[in-house]
Design brief:
The protein is an alpha/beta fold. The chain contains 5 helices and 11 strands; from the N terminus they run E-H-E-E-H-E-H-E-E-H-E-E-E-E-E-H. GO terms for molecular function: potassium ion transmembrane transporter activity.
Length: 225
């Protein structure tokens, strides 16, 4: 897979390194000569250019890319790169870094963004995820379809503990994609049972999040006489 990364700072280089290890073809683009550090990521292609300029993106052959990542420290630049990648070059997948959470509302399909990653929001979400049981935590927002990646740790008192996945009436526009149980990562089947303490990852429409949280957190009825 060919991936172009706009922004060759610490974030861009880190992403490039991870993707190269997974066998992908990487192009790093930056307009600052000081950012062009070929020796830091020697396996990548490098281009000294302004990623907001059509001529630069032509030189980068952006139409050949499967993914474009707008990873600069400037939200305005990331939005422009995303819009050009999607509208001018038809890049199938555009991922954009959000530096200022106040700008997050702009990073959507209208600007060509498929996935917006807000580092401050992600960090706070991971903190919440680490300390929250029974509360829905939003980890990532997908622009298409207004869907989010959300997590909830199933509390011991949940009525769904011990219930088969296929027996649960999940809300519409909701999909259980992963169960993390201890050190295991499970792809759920209809026959798998939910257990207290399971970390459940869903892709869910934002409008369904409250309904999903209510379903998972509902307490067992006290049947004691």
């Amino acid at each position: 897979m060919r991936v172009a990364i706009a922004g060759a700072g610490a974030v861009g280089r880190s992403i490039a390194g991870e993707l190269l290890e997974n066998g992908h073809e990487i192009l790093l683009i930056d307009k600052a000569p000081t950012a062009i550090s070929v020796e830091r990521v020697p396996q990548a292609e490098w281009l000294l250019a302004d990623a907001c300029e059509i001529t630069s993106l032509d030189e980068a052959a952006l139409q050949r890319c499967n993914v474009v990542i707008a990873a600069t420290g400037d939200d305005k630049v990331n939005l422009v790169v995303s819009l050009l990648a999607k509208t001018e070059y038809g890049v199938p997948r555009v991922v954009a870094r959000v530096n200022n959470p106040k700008n997050e509302w702009l990073f959507n399909e209208s600007w060509g963004v498929d996935v917006a990653v807000s580092t401050p929001r992600l960090m706070s979400a991971l903190v919440e995820e680490a300390v929250s049981v029974g509360d829905l935590v939003r980890l990532l927002r997908f622009s298409h379809g207004d869907a989010n990646l959300v997590e909830l740790t199933l509390p011991p008192e949940s009525a769904l503990a011990g219930t088969r996945v296929g027996a649960v009436e999940w809300p519409e526009d909701t999909s259980l994609v992963t169960i993390i149980r201890g050190t295991r990562v499970l792809t759920p089947t209809r026959e798998d049972s939910l257990e207290a303490g399971d970390e459940l990852l869903f892709v869910a429409a934002q409008a369904r999040e409250e309904q999903l949280e209510d379903l998972l957190s509902v307490r067992r009825q006290d049947t004691a006489g």
